[in-house]
Amino acid sequence: VAKNDSSSSFVLYPVFLDLRNITALLVGGGEVAHRKASRLLQCGCLLTVVSPKLVPAFEEFLPLMNFRWEARGYENGEAGNYRIVVSATDEPEVNQRVCHDAKSCGCLVNVVDRPDLCTFHVPSVTRRESLQIAISTGGKCPALARHLRKQLDEIIPEQYGALADKLEIIRAYIKEKVTSQERRRIFVARIVSSRASHEFLNGNEALLDAILKGWKRARSRTGG
Amino acid sequence: VAKNDSSSSFVLYPVFLDLRNITALLVGGGEVAHRKASRLLQCGCLLTVVSPKLVPAFEEFLPLMNFRWEARGYENGEAGNYRIVVSATDEPEVNQRVCHDAKSCGCLVNVVDRPDLCTFHVPSVTRRESLQIAISTGGKCPALARHLRKQLDEIIPEQYGALADKLEIIRAYIKEKVTSQERRRIFVARIVSSRASHEFLNGNEALLDAILKGWKRARSRTGG
Questions:
Q1: In this model, does residue A12 exceed pLDDT 70?
Q2: What angle do CA B167, B22, B90 make, to 5 degrees?
Q3: What average pLDDT score do residues A135-162 get?
Q4: pLDDT at residue B222 in the model
Q5: Ramachandran sector of residue B150 (left: φ over 0; alpha: ψ -120 to 50; beta: rest)
Q6: Residue B215: its pLDDT value, please?
Q7: Which terminal Cβ of chain A has fewer Cβ within 10 Å, N or C?
Q8: A65 to chain B, minimum CA–CA distance in Å?
Q9: Which of B140, B169, B171, B194 to substitute to test the interface with A, most A CBs within 10 Å?
Q10: Model pTM score
Q11: What's phi and psi for A33, nearest 5 deg?
């Protein structure tokens, strides 16, 4: 009998990290490392790449203020100097060492294609501006997560990000006007599942804008 | 003109954390704190809750080995002794202090309903065993993430978790037999989007099992 899902008895904890100005180390300079670097840089972290060589795609990062390349191999212990570490080399001993150094210093570490060495797993992501949907199998089958991501990409309306921005403004208005936390929660939930929000996703922004305008007028009348 | 989406120009980095045996601090003992505690404990972290009082729902956690309650207020600096910190009190000065202490020690911190104080945001999650889908607006409108989560919950087949487990086994077989990483990748992607996987999601596991059985037989014939 094949080993089955005994390893799935624990649950991973999904979080969305604010990496602005956080120090990050990426070990490796191949195609996979390039994809990892791209996502990390987009999130605003201060990225150091350690690798004797880089694939040409890395050139796009060279002008960036938050990108630094050290053209050498990984040095023992250095992972401990960073807050988040990704190892993407094809040398198993290097990956092992990076993992060991990072774990002993308590920093977050991901080793590509070695879920057993990771303290965090990198999901597939569908993004609509500030709204993100992250899908992971905890390293069991990343291709399944990618497959599902593609399907969601087709059905999640483009307008979802703009809706999140609009609802943020509406939520701030409600916070000003409604003191009870419970009533605020119900109010916001009602707006989220309203026809106005649904229409917004279909490209018709008029209804939600009208609600917002009505509130602004009401507020200026009461002199608030 | 209302302030619009200028704050959305940075991107949050979604990760799935392995919290087994990681020390976590939760400040607060209300309903919201209880929900946060529940998810953290499920993920296997060593949780300390600091709060003069707990709502009765917390009683379910008292027998757990990885749960500890300290019946007192938050003490200056103590957030720095933990790897991950959640503040869920309704006292703004306490939330501020926890955030400050955690940030100055480089530990991850989430302050409920204060996205500006968070280094990580907690998403809404749809789970199918080891497959998880995490949705976040980065604190702009958590109710929108919850709304989308409910919709996904209705359309994501129950069998997705079992499929991830099955594909993990299939992937291990492929790893043994196919040396080229690129060919392995294509092979796995093909299985993931195959009719066999599609049928599996509809409750018909026979096709995927037959593929696996065929490989096992082939392997035993070659004596591998």
A1: yes
A2: 110
A3: 96
A4: 61
A5: alpha
A6: 76
A7: N
A8: 15
A9: B140
A10: 0.92
A11: -60, -40
Task: Find out whether A142 and A124 touch, Cβ atoms under 8 Å.
Answer: yes
Whether this model's ipTM surpasses 0.95 comes out as: no
Judged by CB atoms closer than 8 Å, whether chains meet at A43 and B15 is answered as: no
The phi and psi torsions of A6 (rounded to 5 degrees) equal -60, -30
Q: Give how far the C-alpha of residue A198 lies from the chain's centroid of Cα atoms, to the nearest Å.
A: 25
Q: Phi/psi at B130 (nearest 5 deg)?
A: -80, -10
Q: Are B163 and B139 in contact (CB under 8 A)?
A: no
Query: pLDDT band at A212, cuts 50/70/90?
Result: confident
What is the C-alpha end-to-end distance of chain A, expressed in Å?
A: 70
Contacts of A8 in chain B (CB under 8 A): 129-130, 161, 165
**What do you get for the CA distance between the two ends of chain B, in Å?**
70
Cβ within 8 Å, pair A136-B16 = yes
Report residue A137 CA to chain centroid gap.
Answer: 16
Segments in chain A forming alpha helices (H):
31-42, 92-104, 142-155, 160-177, 181-192, 195-201, 206-221
How does pLDDT run across B14-73, given as a tens digit for each residue? 999 999 999 999 999 999 999 999 999 999 999 999 999 999 999 999 999 999 999 999
**CB pair distance less than 8 Å for B148 and A133:** yes
- Of the partner residues A141, A146, A167, the one whose CB lies closest to the CB of residue B164: A141
What is the distance in angstroms between the Cα of B162 and the nearest Cα belonging to chain A? Answer: 8
Q: List chain B residues with pLDDT less than 50.
A: 1-8, 224
**pLDDT at residue number A198:** 94
